[in-house]
Structures are given as C-alpha cells and as structure tokens.
Amino acid sequence: MAKKPKVWVVPVLRVVAFFATVAAAIVMALNKQTKTMVVATIGSTPIKATLTAKFQHTPAFVFFVIANAIAGVHNLFALAVEFFRKKFNFKGLRLLIIVPILDMMIVALVSAGVSSAAFMGELGRNGNSHARWNKICDKFDTFCDHGSGAIIASLVGLLLLMIINVISILNLRKLNPIDRSVVP
Amino acid sequence: MKLMTMARTKRVFTLLLRVLALGATFAAAVVMATSHEKANMFGVRFEAKFSHTPAFKYFLIANVVGSVYSFLVLFLPAENLLWRLVSALDVVMTLVLTSGVSAALAIAYVGKKGNSHAGWLPICGPVENYCHHVGGALASGFIGVLIYMILLLYSIQTNLKTQLV
C-alpha cells in the first residue's frame, strides 16, 4: 500500500532532530578556551594573565544549553511514545495528543534559546561601540567557532522539529475529529 | 431572544484574543521604537538608542510583523478556507515573537548587569530611563507571546477540527 512508507517519516526525522539538539547542547556545554595574554607592561616585564572563556559566563548560553537539553529529552520521550504505542494503547490516545502540544512548546523554547545565543554571539563577534563593549572573538576564536557550530546544529534541530510538529498535527486530524453533527 | 451559538462564542473569543495580541505586540513595538535617551556623566556623553543594538532592532521587527499579522487576520471572514493557513502561520508567529523577546532579553541582561568576564560594563547607571523604557517594551512583548501561545492552541483546535485538550 502507498501509505506504508509514510509511517517512518516522523520517527526518522525525530531521531535526526534528537541528535541535532543533543549535539548542540554538548558542543556548547564543552565550550571552553583558556588563553594566556599579555595584559599590561610594567617597565620591561610583561604581565601575563590567564583568561578563560566559558559558556557559563553568559546566561544566554546557559539558557541555550538547557533549552537544547530539554528538547533532546522531549525527542527521546516522543520516540518512546512512537515505538511503544501498541503496548500502552489505552493511554495511547491521550499521549498522542500531548506529543504535538509539547512539540509546539519545545519549538518555541528552542527558538528562544537559539536566538538569544545567536545575538550574544553576534555581540561577542562585533562588540558594541556605543556601549563600549569590546569584541572577544578576535582573542578567543575557538570559543566563538564552537559556539557558532552549536547554534547551527540547534537551528537544524529547530527546523526538523517544526516539520515534525506540522506532520503530527496533520496526522491528528484523522485521529480525533470533533463531532460537529451534535448540537451542544 | 437570540441564542449565542457555540460557533459564535468561539468566534467572539478568538477575535478578543487576537485584539489583545495586536495590542500587546503593537505596544511593545511602539515603546521600543521610542526609547532614546541622552545623558552626560563626568563629561562623557552617553547616548542610548534602540538602533544601536541589533537585538532590539530584531525585537522591533518581530513585534511589527506580529502586530501586522494580527491586524490582517482580524478582517478574515468566518468559515473561509484560509483559516487553516492562519493556524500554521500562528505557529510561525509564536516562534518569531518568542525568539525576538528572548534575544532582546539576553542583550538587556548584559546591559543591566554587565559581564565581568568579558570586561563589559553595565550601561544602566547613566541612562536609567532608557533601561526602564526597554524593560517596559520587553514586558509587553512577553505578554504578547503568552497571548499568542493561548491563541495557537485555540486556533489549532478550532481550525483544524481536532480535539487538542
């Protein structure tokens, strides 16, 4: 039958989205760069200071890691619901409806995390001359590169989550129509 | 006596929610656009404007798009086929608004508390009114996001004819 292959679309997309969001969370969580720099020169001896750039310094990146971790856990939960649907069939009807609702909330959460991390990264890359905030990416280039990679991975996960959400909601229509013939 | 049918109640409720969403996003956009302050501290001139920060510009654009969308949807006649598209666009709008609020909040946090590790000083000391102004715009943006989330669930249930809750 032509309908058979379509059952595998959503779980496959969910696995990829799971890997994307988890990868983004892990890459950003391990984002750390230490650099020894000359800060000042007194006389003829340069004073060196060891500066570290960590993701915990910025609340936006912390939120990004947390949002992507939550999205990863949600994807795992949704995959479990997808595969064990036959076993929990009496509960299955309610679980199947909760998954798209949670999907929407997770999509909003991940988009918030991505955009805040992206704008903080932009601030780090370009600085802000009006507020006298210097850019930090010229000194900590690996930190910035890893951050950009994590943001791109999260964007891919976000896009996949949106597609999964649309497909899930469209599938709901066949499952649970409102009976409009009955006058309330 | 004219009975309030179920369909009419739903329509009135949806319209009310959309008008509230329009108000919240429009207020956020206007308050952000009018945030501007000049201060003079120890001879150093500070000028704070929303256009200095790309995050605030993005917040403004997101809220303008949200309010224009709300305004246009208000005029859609009932039982039109386009309501399904409105459902899908509601998801996209919630996304855009959430990301705008989140980005502006991240930058505003740095502006208020600074970031000692990066050597970024907070700027809310000299330009306090600007900070309050922007805070008000953010609060309005948050309310817009909340209303949009409620609207999203409601619109999917009504327009796609599925029972979500």
Describe the structure.
The complex is a heterodimer of chains A (184) and B (165). With 184 residues, chain A is mostly helical. Chain A has one domain (9-175). Helix content of chain A is 65%, strand content 11%. Chain A has four helices and two strands; from the N terminus they run αββααα. A two-stranded antiparallel ribbon of chain A has the order 1-2. In chain A, a hairpin with a 2-residue loop joins strand 1 and strand 2 (45-54). The longest helix of chain A has 38 residues, at 89-126. Chain A starts with 8 loop residues before the first helix and ends in a 9-residue tail after the last helix. The model of chain A has no long low-confidence stretch (mean pLDDT 81). Chain B has a two-stranded antiparallel ribbon. Chain B is elongated and about 65 Å long. Chain B has four helices and two strands, in the order H-E-E-H-H-H. Chain B is 68% helix and 7% strand. Chain B has one domain (17-36, 48-164). Chain B is mainly α and 165 residues long. Chain A: It holds the Pfam family CASP_dom. Chain A: Residues 8-159 form the Casparian strip membrane protein domain.
Structural domains of chain A: how many: 1
Question: Order of strands side by side in the largest beta sheet of chain B?
Answer: 1-2
Structural class of chain B: mainly alpha
Q: In percent, how helical is the residue content of chain B? A: 55-70%
The chain-level mean pLDDT of chain A equals 81
Oligomer: heterodimer
The most extensive contact between chains is:
A-B, 49 and 44 residues
| Tally of contiguous helical segments of chain A | 4
Integer tally of domains of chain B: 1
Rounded to the nearest angstrom, the radius of gyration of chain A is 23 Å
Largest sheet composition of chain A: 2 strands, antiparallel
Uncertain stretches of 5 or more adjacent residues of chain B: none
Give the rounded overall mean pLDDT of chain B.
Answer: 82
SSE ordering of chain A: HEEHHH
The H-and-E topology of chain B, N to C, reads as HEEHHH
Annotation field: number of helices of chain B: 4
Low-pLDDT parts of chain A are none
> What is the number of strand segments of chain B?
2
Approximately how much helix is present in the residues of chain A? 55-70%
Per DSSP E runs of 2 or more residues, the count of β-strands of chain A stands at: 2
